[in-house]
């Protein structure tokens, strides 16, 4: 039962934090392409890791991450007004690299497929007969 409740809390926090970042945070480093991909809350609800994803260079990602970390208290206060919890967790922001990994894997698979097609289209050599 606790795992199911924690899952619901994580899902709710994900939605609320995303809304606060996009509507209430006024920082030029935080662009509209920031997405909250996942929230992992500790069992006692005192700490939460907020995973974010965005399409940007590594330097831009670091600027956004730093801006979010500095605004974490403000984000927590604004989000706590929208969610009724006994304890509102202290927020820690992390960059979610799963999208980057997925794109890298897709690229590698595409290269493998291109290589396979080029080998299938190539005429047979004397060695292969």
Describe the structure.
This protein has four helices and three strands, in the order H-E-E-H-H-E-H. By secondary structure, the chain is an alpha+beta fold. Strands 1-2-3 form a three-stranded mixed sheet. A hairpin with a 5-residue loop joins strand 1 and strand 2. The longest helix has 24 residues, at 98-121. The radius of gyration is 22 Å and the shape is elongated.
How would you describe this structure in keywords?
129 residues; alpha+beta; GMP Synthetase, Chain A, domain 3; three-stranded mixed sheet; elongated
List the helices and strands and how they pair.
Blueprint: H1 2-23, E1 35-41, E2 47-53, H2 58-70, H3 72-80, E3 90-95, H4 98-121
Parallel strand pairs: 2-3
Antiparallel strand pairs: 1-2
Helix pairs in contact: 1-3
* Morphology call: elongated
* First-residue to last-residue Cα separation: 65 Å
- Counted by DSSP, the helix tally is 4
CATH superfamily: K homology (KH) domain
Total number of strands: 3
**How is the main sheet built?**
3 strands, mixed
Report the sheet-strand fraction: 15-25%
How much helical structure, as a percent, in the residues?
40-55%
Order of strands across the biggest sheet?
1-2-3
The CATH topology is GMP Synthetase, Chain A, domain 3
Please provide the ordered H/E string of secondary-structure elements.
HEEHHEH
Point out poorly predicted stretches.
none
């Amino acid at each position: 039962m606790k795992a199911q409740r924690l899952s619901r809390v994580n899902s709710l926090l994900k939605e609320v934090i995303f809304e606060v970042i996009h509507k209430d945070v006024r920082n030029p480093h935080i662009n509209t392409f920031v997405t909250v991909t996942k929230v992992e809350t500790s069992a006692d609800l005192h700490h939460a890791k907020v995973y974010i994803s965005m399409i940007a260079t590594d330097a831009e990602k670091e600027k956004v991450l730093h801006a979010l970390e500095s605004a974490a208290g403000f984000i927590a206060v604004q989000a706590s007004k929208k969610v009724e919890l006994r304890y509102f967790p202290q927020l820690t922001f992390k960059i979610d690299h799963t999208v980057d990994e997925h794109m890298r894997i897709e690229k590698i698979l595409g290269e493998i497929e291109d290589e396979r097609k080029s080998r299938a289209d190539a005429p047979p050599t004397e060695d292969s007969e």
